[in-house]
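Researcher: Before we compare anything, I want clean individual predictions. No alignment, no superposition, just each chain on its own. First chain goes here; please echo the sequence and then give the structure tokens.
Model: Echoing the first chain and its structure:
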Amino acid sequence: MKCFPFYHGEKKEEPKSIKLASGLSNSSFNAEDDVRRSGSEFNSKVASENSTDSQRRTALPSLSQKPSNLKVFTVSELKSATKNFSRSVMLGEGGFGCVYKGLIKSVEDPSRKIEVAVKQLGKRGMQGHKEWVTEVNVLGIVEHPNLVKLVGYCADDDERGIQRLLIYEYMPNRSVEHHLSPRSETPLPWGRRLKIAEDAARGLTYLHEEMDFQIIFRDFKSSNILLDEHWNAKLSDFGLARLGPSEGLTHVSTAVVGTMGYAAPEYVQTGRLTSKSDVWSYGVFLYELITGRRPFDRNRPKGEQKLLEWVRPYLADGKKFQLILDPRLDKKHLFKSAQRLAIIANRCLVKNPKNRPKMSEVLDMVNQIVESSLSASPQLPLKNLASGEASQDTESNNKRRIMDLKSGDSNWLSKIWKPKLVRAS
């Protein structure tokens, strides 16, 4: 499932200038100057959009002043690490370009070699370069156990022209999307899916709430959640990430980009981006874990192509609910926790983004399910999943939605956005 821009007749925003994070030295061409020329919106001090909000925006936190421990590589080093970018070590190919497995010297212990993933920018022109710059700036200054670690980058010249590459820690167990695929020989057991949901929520919580600035992922999806050797889930691919709104503002106005089936409807319709857009995408992802299906799949019958529309008739009735569970799972032992996870998904998919929970609240709810599953203790009442931090009105609405599911209200989905098929231009 590839990432693409959505267009709705509005003028596409022009990215602003940015500097590479401090501590990143220049290569054979001046990478920092190139970044300033091509730009990214992260350190914008002067807004160019026509909206009132944009005209009132103040300076955003300067990522260029944050410390960075990224290593700068040369093309020659990376050729050696990847057997000259041999197809025999290619891990995959996506919208950004090809990814290769490589071996490099450990920074901590030069006598030891470590495995890395080397992502090489394809011939996508300026847009691909902007995403490369954004990844360097975001992953160069953030660090968390549930974010893929960026080891370094390369911006160099060789006989092929200008080379731009990113070097990450190697994630041997591939992506969650891979394991949810019907073609996968190793379907994820339910306990592991719950742990992945918890890890992903923890990563988003860090980005949204645990730094002195907010980062909105903007492309949260199963293919961007990778699994390490211990099956810990980590968010990856930050090329579309944006800084959240500055103080006093409710949203960031931006060109609409994302992946079909994941993008929050209010963002697709207006271009107004908030952290609640990521919360919506997370809700979609929970239904992926529950059903084993992709959010949008043209290969299925017409009535089953859009995941959220397909699950709708099955959610109110417990007997019907088991029909949407991934057939590769043992349904007897996961039924209750799957229902509880669906309730969390429903809260993330509320029509009004203001009534969706924060990711820290989502994380608390998922933690309850994981702890309950591990301890094999009696399930907590479903109504306890309502967030205690929500406003009185919001909490009341959330509890009512939970009770609607328990009592068999088949119209619960009428209260959330119905996904629309948006065509890529």
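Researcher: Okay. Second chain, same rules.
Model: Second chain and its structure:
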Amino acid sequence: MKKQNLTLGVIIGNRDFFPDKLVSEARADILKLFAESGISAVMLAESDSKLGGVETYQDAKKCADLFKKHKDQIAGVLVVLPNFGDERGVADTLHLADLKVPVLIQGYPDELNKLNVANRRDSWCGKISVCNNLYQYGIKYSLTAKHVVHPGDASFLADLEQFIGVCRVVKGLKNVRIGAIGARPTAFNTVRYSEKILQKNGISVVTCDLSEILGKANKLGPSDQRVKEHLEKIHNYASTGKTPSEALVQMAKLDVVLNDFMIENQLDANAIQCWTSLQQNYGCNVCTSSSMFSEGMIPSACEVDVTGTLSMYALQLASGSPSALVDWNNNYADDDEKCVLFHCGNWAKSFLPDIEISNAPILGTTVGVENTYGALDGRTPASPLTFGRISTDDTRGIMKAYIGDGYLTNDELNTFGNRAVAKIPDLQGLMKYVCKNGFEHHVVMNASHTSAVLGEAFENYLGWEVYHHQG
């Protein structure tokens, strides 16, 4: 399990007629595991209750008060059942604390040679009782792959890593702020969305007219110190290929102003108008700046695809690595489980080992290739793939999403722009779902297998409608 930078609340359940030593053993197990994994724990001290366990209503109040003091830090709660536990104590703690964070329920397994009164746990049964009470209280919770599992078991390590991903997604999406820079291009009805539905789900959109950005950029000159700094940043980021120096300066000026806008408004992601106002009114593509934002873990999408960049942010939270906005673009010969992913292109350079700043030939046919420098060229090699898309379904007033896993391959692909070949089980069935349910032509890719994290976060904790493509 990789090192985490996260804080979890911990509730150790106890029931008085089971051996108290099991509580102490569980405490030691969890603290050791957290120390190895870089997780901070908020839990009762051994002196706060009987060995720091939660059993009575008084214990629950103490634990809840402790959690409330650390509400801003706690991203999730781990419920540990070294024995049957007191289901009311666990439920009361979570109810009183009212953290509204993900909860993972773990129960210890019994050993066949230790089913005597001095050693038995009965956590198998106790876990059912705890879940029953949480269900009654309306508290959402997650389960381990095995009904009971020791914290040192490899299966539980996988459970915990997935749970931490769920915590990151839920916490990150509760108050995310997205910059919508410019108007949606007229030709892209597909990226329409509802600000009101997003706001209802804690997602804020901060708008800005593209003319304000371009006006500020045009006031900057090549001798401006900040322009020089951003120009150096661009040179250090990617090979400039045959891109003219004046185009690189244009890109640097734009990057200065975009960064200012993001900082001033404390934004987590952005979606920028590109096609075709930027080229016609300013003379370059924004792709390089978007790529640098995304590589720096600030997702950036084109065509003012706000829910597209929200999807990028969600996949980034799940995996801890950058995401890219792509088109479901082409079939791959006659292989029904493969397709071409493409953009012209603004993918984070994590996806592009051969990254080069170039131009956009397709867009150049209408606005002039000389006005499209800043687009990136590069091929994404084989890797794990998680794909996903979040949308507002405005006619139904809901948030919806689809997610799944597959692979990116090294199959031959002779074209330009940002490109990849994806292999997805039952791809044809997935495309039917996308089309029948009115999803956009844009999807998000991430070099991971984290669709299970996203599904649990979106559906269980955020209450969105989710299709998890299994193939």
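Researcher: What stands out in the second chain?
Model: The radius of gyration is 25 Å. Additionally, DSSP finds 15 helices and 18 strands in the chain.
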